[in-house]
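Quick one before lunch.
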Amino acid sequence: MNDVRAALAAVKDKIAAAAARAERAPEDVHLIAVSKTFDGGAITPVLAAGQRLFGENRVQEALAKWPALKADYPDVELHLIGPLQSNKAKDAVALFDAIHTIDRPKIARAIAKEMAAQGKRLRLFVQVNTGEEPQKAGVMPGEAAAFVALCRDEIGLEIAGLMAIPPAADMVEPHFAFLAKLADELRLPGEPPLALSMGMSADYESAIHLGATHVRVGSAIFGGRILA
Ligand SMILES: *Cc1c(COP(=O)(O)O)cnc(C)c1O
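Model of the pyridoxal-5'-phosphate complex:
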């Protein structure tokens, strides 16, 4: 049986060590505990250990378990890290504090409309398909600048950061470095740097080395998933 409390502590230690090696402040790296496929019973010990930032990849699944958990832990922060359909925009805006997967005008517009309707501002990340994989979500790298400009100038969205999931078969470092460079290029004058959502259980330490501000760690905390 996996001891989630010890696993969480070990991940946090590794994050702090990776930040120190990169000469970065540990508080500049946010750990998103990815609780997808795990139920409230598995999540509660992680909450009890003090973790407050969680990631989910499906709106429906998150809706089924988080309202009850949030009743006990109202200061939880929830990030949507999976693909979003525009017919789920309303639920997503109501439940989540951040969305990492803005990748097309239709979704950007649906989220903007819902944030206005609900009077709520989420932190929004644009997902970039750095490996240009046909089956994967995310804007193509060559279209990222134009898409971010569209979000900012036409749709009126503030873009907080960029997110990527490198191809499973590739070395991750070039993808992380690419995302960091793109974030530099898309930074607005006078504004803080864009956040970088990159790195999962297998590679969060390299992601931190290359500038990750948000690492999305699931199995290293919760153990293996039966469903993907
Ligand atoms: C599942 C998932 C993760 C976490 O993956 P692990 O390898 O279990 O850490 C991170 N990011 C996204 C987008 C995911 O869907």
